[in-house]
Amino acid sequence: MTQSNDNVKMIGALLLGAAVGGALGILLAPDKGSETRKKILAKGDDLTDSLKEKFQDFLDGVKIEMDMIKHKANVYMGDGIAKAEKFEID
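The chain above was modelled as a monomer; its predicted structure follows.
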């Protein structure tokens, strides 16, 4: 669980850093207002795409973990049933 929390924190820090860096770069650039607005929109789109990709990666990781847990549960359940049948009294 701590690895998942660390990954979420890292992704959040990267996205925040990218957003702050992009915003500062745009706001400090000597462009006209219309050009600055276009750049802000483009950076926003880039950030949105990046966030979607990172979220999908996170969901894929969760799905893999859930599949592993289901598999282990099925194995344990099968072992338990086999042991119970061994001791079953007719």
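The two ends are 44 Å apart (CA to CA).
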